[in-house]
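fold description:
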Amino acid sequence: MEEVTKLAKKNWFTLKVRSGSEASIIHQIELNFKAAGIEDCLEEIYSPSVQIKSGNKTREKKLYPGYIFIKMVMSEKTKDAVLSIPQVYSFLSSGKDKAGVGIPAPVSDREYENMIAKVNKISEAN
């Protein structure tokens, strides 16, 4: 069963997380997938930010504070590896199942490409 999961299609999902904790959450997700032996189910994790220059100082600005984009295979095991982290609140959902639990909604490739284009445009302007 797990081998089938590893071969399944990876989709982008949006996570609602504690703002300011994005980097530590990304690191913990990677550790959880590795510890569970499901790292093949995770392709990429992204917290969009840009470098803002002000005089001779540079700072990082989060474009979507409190959100992380993750490309992964969605299964109970991978979902648990993400949601077991205390600062992760939920996946953005497309509705609820019979038990009233949110069903994670994949982000379309078009939506993700639009977000990346926005990040690149802001980066180029700085």
Notes: The radius of gyration is 16 Å. The chain has a mean pLDDT of 87. The beta strands are 11-17, 42-46, 49-54, 57-62, 67-72, 88-91, 93-96, 102-104, 106-107. Residues 109-125 form the longest helix (17 residues).
